[in-house]
Each structure stands twice: as C-alpha cells, then as structure tokens.
Design goal:
Helix content of chain A: 40-55%
Order of helices and strands of chain A: HHHHEEHEHEHHEHHEHEHEHHEHE
Distance between the termini of chain B: 48 Å
Order of helices and strands of chain B: HHHEEHEHEHHHHEHEHHHEHEHE
Strand content of chain B: 5-15%
Largest interface: A-B, 37 and 39 residues
Shape of chain B: globular
Number of helices of chain B: 15
Mean pLDDT of chain B: 92
Radius of gyration of chain B: 20 Å
Oligomer: heterodimer
Helix content of chain B: 40-55%
Number of strands of chain B: 9
Number of helices of chain A: 15
Strand order of the largest sheet of chain B: 8-1-9
Structural class of chain B: alpha/beta
Distance between the termini of chain A: 35 Å
Number of strands of chain A: 10
Largest sheet of chain B: 3 strands, parallel
Strand content of chain A: 5-15%
Low-confidence stretches of chain B: none
Strand order of the largest sheet of chain A: 2-3-4-5-6-7-8
C-alpha cells in the first residue's frame, strides 16, 4: 500500500489540469465516475493526465499483461439495406462505391482453409444486412466454420444482424439465439451500437436498430448465456455528451447482465463514406477514446485497441493509456482499410509482431481465445 | 517508493538530473509518468498553449559522399553512376517553389562530395540570397560534417570557414550528423565520420559566431542507454557554455537498405525502434536537456499520428513542412504532411498552431 501511495503522489503531482484531481481521488478510491466526470475527461486539454489515470486503472486490473488473440475475420457480404452514412463497406456502385459480393458457405470454408496453417482460436464473422439471405444461410455459415475449425470459438453476428436473422427466421430472438448457439456461436461482436443516442441514430443510421432496441437485443444475448463485445464508433457527428451517454448506458446494462467482456472504441474513417467532408479523429482522439472508456467502464474487464483503425504504432502507445488488449491477427478485413491501403483486403499482424510490439512497450503478451481464456501452447 | 518515482518528482520540481538519474530513467517503463514529467519541462520553456512549425523545404544538394556511414541508405560513393549534384538552376527552382508556398526555411544538406569546394558553396549561397533574400529566405544548411570537410579541403580553420559561409549567406546550421556523440558508437556505425568532439567543437565555433544551430540524436542502432545519456549530457554541457542550440530533434535509426542492418543479419538483427521507444526517449531527452528551449517532433520518421502524440511528451514544435525528403525515405520512411494538416493536428491536440522562422520567432500567416 505504501508503494501505491507513493506512486499516487507522483501521479497527482504531475496532473497538469487541477480539475482532474477530483477524478483522480475517485479513481484512487475505486469510486464510480459520473457523467460530469466523463465530460471533463473528454474536454480537458491534459490528455497526458487522462492517459495516466486510465493507465493506473489498467495496471490495477491487469498488471503487465496485454492480451491478444490469433483470429481470422470473415466479412461474408457487403450487400446491405441499412444505408448508414458512416459506412464505406456496403456495396454501392450507383454512387461510386464498392461492387457487391457475397460469400457462400463454401467460400467461407475456402477462406478458412487459406489460413489453415495459422493456429487461430477465434473466427470473427460480420457482414451486411442482405434481406434475401434465408435463416439457413446463417446456420450454414456456422456449420462451415465448425467443419474446418472444430476447435475455435466463433464470434459472429452483431446485434443488428441477429435482429435480422430472427426476423427472417420468423421466430423469437431467444429461440434463434439458442439455435445459433447450438450451431456453434460462442460470442457476439460489438458492432452496430455506433453511438447509443437517438439524435445520432436519426441522423446517420435510421434504418438500423434504435439505441433502446440495441440494448434489448444485448439483454437477450446475455439471457442466452452468450458473451458479448461492445464498441462505440466515434469521431463523426456525435457530441461529447452523447459519447458519455453511450458509455453510461453500456455500463448500466453491464451492471444488470455482466456479459460484456471487452469494449473497443472504433475510430471513424471518413474516406468513401457519406461523411467524407469530415476530418475524422486524430491519434490524440484515439488515445483519449481508449483512456476515457477505461475510466468510465469500471465494470467491463477489457479495453481493446483495434490496430487496423488505430495503427500498430498508436496501439502500442494506447497500452499505456488504458488499453489491455491488442485485438487479433485478423488475416483479412474488408470493412476499414489501413491508411493509404484502400481496398487491400489482406490485413494481418503476425502473432510474433504483436508480441514484439507489446514487449517493446515493456509489457507482457498473453495469448487469449475468443472468450478471454489464456491459451498455452 | 520506486527510485524512478523519486527522480521524476525531483525533475518535476525543475531539479537538474545527473547521469545516474538519467540512466535510471532509461529503464523506467512507465510511459505516462515520463510524459507528465516531460510535459512539465516543456511548460517551463514554453508555457503558452502554442505549438510552432516552419514552412520550409528540405533539399539534398548532393548524394555523393565518401564517408560511407553504415546506417545510411541515401549516399552514393564518389564515382557511382547514381550520384548527383543539383545544378544551380534546379536549386533555384526548388527555392522558388518553396517561396511560392509561403516558405522561408531552406534546409540544405548533402554528402561529403570531393567535387565541391568552399567557393562552390559561397557562390551558391550568395546567388540564392541575392535572388530570394528579399522574399525572406533563411539558409539553414550544412551539418558539422560538411562544414568541417569544406574547411579541411580549403586548408583553413573551422572558424574561418564558418565566417566565410556566414558572409555568403548561411544563417543557421542543422544539427545533423550527431548520431550518438560517443566514440564507441561512432566507431561502430560511422568510423570515418567526424568524431564527437569535432562535432561539438564545430557547433561551439558556430555559436560563438552568432550562428544558431539545432542538435540531434539518432538512437536505436547499437547504442545503449549509457550512450544516450552521455550524448544528452554532452549537448547539455555545450549549451551551458554557449546557449546556441535552438532545438533538439531525435529519431530512431531507419534500418532498411543500410549496411548496418545487413551486418547485423538483415531484418532479424536490427529492428526499427518503435513508437514506445521514441516517446520514452523523447520524454527523457526533454527532461535531461533543461537548457534547450525547443523540441521538434520527427513526423518524417514517426508519421503524423505519433508526431501529434509526441506533443504530450515534451515536444513543442512540429518541425518543417519539408516538401521533400530523400534521406530516411531511402531507408523506407515515406510520410508527407502539409501545413494545413500540421495545423489541424496541432489544434486537435489542444494547442494553437503558429508559424515560426528558423530562430523560433513567431511570424505571419497561417495555412
């Protein structure tokens, strides 16, 4: 305790913005931060201080351990009827966007076989909302994964997709979730929440689930005893208040369900979207998003930095600003492209490179599986 | 209490750190604590929430160089068919383009090319100053290795050579070629290059003549923290003596295509130091050099993202807009950032962007 106190003295003497001291005291005492605190954390110009506070929480929760997963992403179709304005992934030839593609279960099998040498433990599957796909298609996708990779966890179908799947199945969501689980689903990715605000929903993605509906689907996922990830897409039209509200709504639900394992702030990339005129977040915004999430989400165990959006370099720094998870090796990703590499589907970070980044940052890499169990090889 | 916490607390209250303290910080892994302490040091020198940058152009007038530094992928040995010397007209048109973009600082460095003598430089500087001086051209040119070689070829002392170059129009000297100012490291990475003492003495003479200079550090090749600390203390010692350093700039060794990387077994031997090491080394340098007023980020090697983050690790200057870069890009580093983007990044980091000249005086317009 003496040690902690002295480190604490260092931390509090180095906080440049005196307004952060109240928050620092709460953090030291493990007391919950409120909306006003969240607002202040987003608005102070002392990002170093915010990062240091978040780092103290990360250190308390995880010590030197930084998690990553060997995984493969599958984006099964870019056909989508949701027309979200922040999206550059959906097929949209009419307006100069990408051409449509769809992967059959056999295509998915082939994609998995392409990396059959990689000892992955998780397959991450998300796609657009193509209303022509029958219920059986989704079950077949899970079966395809099971046939090639019987031992991995399948993290698949965001809340938005699950809502669509239930609707095309003509069955209640809990029943569908039970059947998907039976077919191999083990966790649900966090996409589709965007910003849990009615205003942003109306402006950017009115065809998708409303914030209340998203939270209801999340409750059903928890009831089905599935693990879920959470995200927030930031850096477009949302206000600071709306970001804070998003974090608090997730935190409230987590108090109720406890089923979220990790939170990933997703940095908005404007290129090719309907919001191309916006400048998009800078690296400082990316670090702050991670730090504030770590400080506000006191009941979600892990905070991830997604290297495809944040770059491996910024992700390395993020490990000292609240993040404890570098996400996965990915292999292929079609939703966002690394800067200057538009359209290059092959996006991979080898486990060795990942471990090297973590070690260089003075921390200890720990490989995990899709539900945060440590993998020992 | 951890030893490093005590050191950081002392540094935060503006105490000058000795070699032992700095060496201990070299093993401090706590990036955020170092950042907070470096930010304090930055605020003592530049308490305003402003970050400066200069609109300028980088020109490498020749790539011919006989020194064969093992960390360099830019040079061509004398006689190589890939060697070049820019003509007077090429140089003039590059400066003209810079002036048209509102630029003032011409950062001109090259190699130690046996074909060029003092008269060549004097006449070049005179011509450029005659044509572009009225538009505000500042000549920030010739690292110590070049100055020393020019003096030697002319069989005159360094002070004499500096005087003549200054008379011809040289305003300021970039701190390149310092690499790591310890004989052990220089022996290994650049055995034929200017020694540490010579580099420092050239800067001393420049300062005494009223020519401001920057200082640099290229870390991450074969250096240890002992070497880095010695480097920092030698720069600090000279600055105590002359006060002539305007800014400090550091960047990691870029291995691609260099003899050093090959000697060490290619890709597996020497890996490029990452963002974490850059920010940590920047913060420790800012804490160590309590008498150097400004610290530049190295967006050329780190990219705009880490450069922006570096503003929280002791840097208060975004460097030059460059317009072109030929040296580290030869070693696999190819970022481009214009004035508008620099200003956006500075603002998004919570600072006001201001244009400066080479003497770090705030000047006119914005992007």
């Amino acid at each position: 305790m003496g040690d902690a106190n002295e480190s604490w003295r260092l931390l509090s003497t180095t906080l440049r913005d005196p307004a952060l001291r109240g928050i620092a005291e709460k953090v030291a005492a493990c007391r919950r931060l409120d909306a006003a605190d969240g607002q202040l954390l987003y608005e102070t110009d002392d990002l170093t201080g915010v990062g240091a506070l978040a780092n103290s929480v990360r250190q308390r929760l995880h010590g030197p351990r930084v998690w990553y997963v060997r995984n493969q992403h599958i984006n099964y179709t870019n056909v989508c009827n949701k027309q979200c304005r922040f999206c550059s992934f959906a097929a949209n030839i009419g307006r100069g966007g990408p051409a449509p593609y769809s992967m059959s279960p056999d295509d998915v099998r082939a994609a998995l076989l392409r990396y059959s040498d990689a000892p992955i433990t998780e397959v991450h599957i998300v796609g657009g909302i193509d209303p022509r796909l029958p219920y059986s298609y989704y079950l077949d996708l899970l079966a395809a994964v099971r046939s090639v990779r019987p031992d991995v966890q399948t993290k698949a179908f965001t809340a938005v997709e699950l809502d669509q799947i239930a609707s095309v199945a003509g069955k209640p969501l809990p029943e569908v979730l039970a059947e998907l689980r039976e077919a191999g689903l083990s966790a649900v990715p966090g996409g589709g929440a965007e910003v849990l605000s009615d205003r942003v929903h109306r402006l950017l993605h009115p065809c998708k689930l409303t914030p209340d509906e998203w939270l209801d689907v999340a409750r059903a996922i928890a009831d089905a005893k599935l693990t879920q990830y959470a995200t927030m897409l930031y850096g477009h039209v949302e206000t600071v208040e709306e970001r804070v509200e998003h974090l608090i709504r997730l935190r409230d639900l987590q108090d109720e369900t406890g089923h979220f394992v990790a939170f990933t702030p997703l940095s908005f990339h404007p290129e090719g979207t309907g919001l191309e005129h916006l400048p998009g977040p800078t690296a400082m915004d990316d670090l702050r998003a991670i730090a504030v999430a770590r400080l506000m989400l006191d009941n979600i165990p892990h905070i991830k930095t997604f290297w495809i959006m944040n770059t491996p370099e910024v992700s390395q720094v993020a490990l000292w600003c609240g993040a404890d998870d570098m996400d996965g090796t990915v292999e292929e990703y079609r939703i966002t492209f690394a800067e200057g590499r538009s359209g290059e589907v092959r996006q991979a970070l080898s486990a060795d490179a990942m471990e090297e980044l973590i070690r260089e940052a003075g921390l200890t890499p720990v490989e995990r599986d899709g539900v945060y169990r440590e993998v020992t090889r | 209490m951890k030893e490093t916490d005590d050191i950081l607390l002392r540094a935060s209250s503006a105490e000058r750190l000795a070699a032992d303290d700095l060496l201990a910080l070299g093993s401090c892994r706590d990036l955020t604590a170092l950042a907070a302490c470096a930010d304090r040091a930055r605020l003592r020198h530049n308490p305003d929430r402003i970050v400066t940058y200069v609109v300028g152009r980088n020109v490498n007038y020749t790539n011919v160089c006989w020194v064969r530094c093992r960390f360099c992928a830019f040079y061509r040995a004398p006689g190589s068919s890939e060697g070049y010397v820019l003509t007077r007209d090429e140089l003039r048109s590059k400066v003209r383009e810079m002036i048209a973009e509102g630029g003032v600082e011409l950062l001109m460095q090259g190699g130690l090319n046996p074909a060029l003598d003092l008269a060549w430089y004097e006449s070049l500087f005179r011509d450029l100053k005659a044509e572009f001086g009225p538009s505000g051209l500042i000549l920030h040119a010739l690292s110590p290795a070049e100055v020393i070689y020019i003096a030697r070829r002319a069989r005159i002392g360094i002070t004499e050579a500096l005087k003549r170059l200054k008379d011809a129009g040289l305003d300021s000297i970039p701190g390149g070629g310092a690499e790591i100012l310890t004989e052990r490291v220089r022996q290994e990475i650049a055995p034929l290059k200017t020694g540490a003492d010579e580099w420092l003495d050239c800067m001393r003479q420049a300062h005494l003549l009223g020519i401001p200079t920057t200082a640099t550090m290229m870390y991450g090749s074969v250096d240890t923290w002992e070497d880095r600390v010695e480097h920092l203390l030698r720069v600090r010692g000279l600055q105590d003596e002359t006060g002539g350093f305007t800014a400090f700039i550091l960047w990691p060794f870029q291995p691609d295509g260099t003899a050093l990387a090959q000697m060490r077994g290619g890709e597996t031997g020497l890996v490029k130091a990452g963002a974490y090491d850059y920010l940590r080394t920047l913060a420790i340098s800012r804490i160590a050099l309590d008498n150097v007023p400004h610290f530049q980020v190295s967006w050329v090697t780190q990219g705009p993202r880490i450069a922006q983050i570096a503003l929280g690790y002791g840097a208060d200057d975004f460097g030059s807009t460059m317009m072109e870069e030929n040296v580290v890009s030869a070693a696999g580093c190819t970022y481009r950032v214009g004035a508008r983007e620099i200003e956006r990044l500075i603002r998004a980091a919570g600072y006001e962007p201001r244009r400066r000249n080479t003497r770090y005086e705030i000047i006119g317009s914005r992007a």
